[in-house]
Amino acid sequence: MEEKQGIKIGMPIIGGLIAAILGGVVWAAVAAMTEYEVGLIAILVGVLCGYAVVLFSNKQIATVHKIIAIIFSLVGILLGKYLTVVYFTSELFTDVSLLSLVFDGEMISAFVDTIQEYFSEPTDLLFIGLAVLSAWQIPGRMAKTSMASEAPTSDQANQASDQAPKA
Question: Residue 87: which residues within 8 A CB-CB, separation 6 or more?
Answer without folding.
Answer: 28, 31, 32, 98
